[in-house]
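Retro notes, item 3 of 5
We never archived the inputs for the magnesium ion complex last cycle. Fixing that now. Sequence and ligand:
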Amino acid sequence: MNLIIFGAPGSGKGTQSEQLIQRYGLHHISTGDLLRSHIANGTELGKVANVFISKGNLIPDELMLDILENELDLHPEVKGVIFDGFPRTIPQAEALNKILEKRGTKIHAVIGLEVPEAELTDRLIKRGAISGRSDDNAETIAKRLEVYHRQTAPLKEFYTSRGSYHAIKGSGSVDEIFASITQVVDRIE
Ligand code: ATP
Ligand code: MG
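Structure as it came back at the time:
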């Protein structure tokens, strides 16, 4: 079973993924975490990625897709994947369909965490105070939300039209939100 956890920056994708991997034994692929580890290790890729990330922009699709395929190839034995922070553009989603088809599998469900805009900003500002992330400051947060609405939000319609989008109320306690997610996922398995 392959899931996409979908939502705006600060919608709680990473938090909910941690519980999902435990409950369903899935492999977590967070493209944001992968990119941040490249930055922390000072790799060439990290240097390139940091130019985009620190401005709140997306990494170019081709680069992101290379990283993603490489990560899938590194873990051929997994029984399923949670994609967190990927896909973020229509071309990434189309490429992901092809990549999974080549591997004899598909996306089984997209879990869309829906959170009011004001709450997103609030959460990201608070996270910035402890995360030390270069992109969790007011200016970059506004830019990331704008990029989300322009480039990523259209994926909701992309997956709705394919019957795989499931809207989840993403405000409330972490456990309440997780419970609504498991109601959806348990019906898929
Ligand atoms: P959340 O808070 O819900 O975990 P986020 O948007 O704050 O989400 P990440 O998913 O960690 O954070 O992404 C951080 C940055 O990494 C993005 O702003 C973008 O620059 C880059 N990035 C991550 N995933 C992708 C992707 N699929 N395509 C292009 N760029 C990406
Ligand atoms: Mg994240």
